[in-house]
Design a protein that fits this description.
The chain has helices at 3-18, 29-42, 45-76, 78-93, 100-107, 111-135, 139-147, 152-163, 165-189, 196-206, 209-237. It has 244 residues and is mainly alpha-helical. It starts with a helix and ends in a 7-residue tail after the last helix.
Length: 244
Amino acid sequence: MAIGPVALFCVWYLVNVTGLVTPRLLPSPVRTLQSIWTNALGGGLGADFMRTLGRTLHAFAIAAIVGVPLGIVIGASEKLYRSIEFLIDFFRSTPATAMFPLFMIIFGLGDFSKISVAAFAAWLVILFNVAYGVMNSRRTRILAAQVMGASRLRVFRDVLFFECLPQTFIGLRTAVSMALVVIVVAEMFIGSDDGLGKRIIDSQITFDLPQLYGTIIVSGVLGYGLNLVFLGLEKRLVHWAGRS
């Protein structure tokens, strides 16, 4: 697990020492790590980290609460899914950043504007994956439950929900990463007083490259950590995935 970070550090150090890239544009990894440590202790990096994390989780929670049940309903009816498939694919394929002006007009420049555009982007990912998981669930299990007299609600709750969980978790992991990306970009370009995105754009303006690279690394660590959390939840809750 540590091989990747160590290899990256070594390559970065060699490129810096040999001058393949001027140190003015690529500070040494040691200076960058020192910048992370200094800013974490007294430079407000911790507060910005928590603000970005909070906005990301807020957007993700909205997307999941709305997207999972709606995806199950849409996926349970192939006719319904096909009727709105174009809209889902159209908005899912539209870059979330292209929606910034629309959300700024509707919600202004506050936090809710950032959270809403991130929630919208994450919601589409969740909706598509849940609906796809329901549509591709094992029909034999559904038929078996119906033959045994299970009601439509019981089939929905005890069969469809669990059948679509593996695909749902794929959607959730992708969605939380999407939410983080959109939040960081929104913090950079939609008026913000804090957050990792604001710190990145401020570092670029002041040409504080150790802080710039350091904040990018912290953002990557945050995204990687969120992915690990959902992988752990998936292994614990969907332990039957891949078994017949």
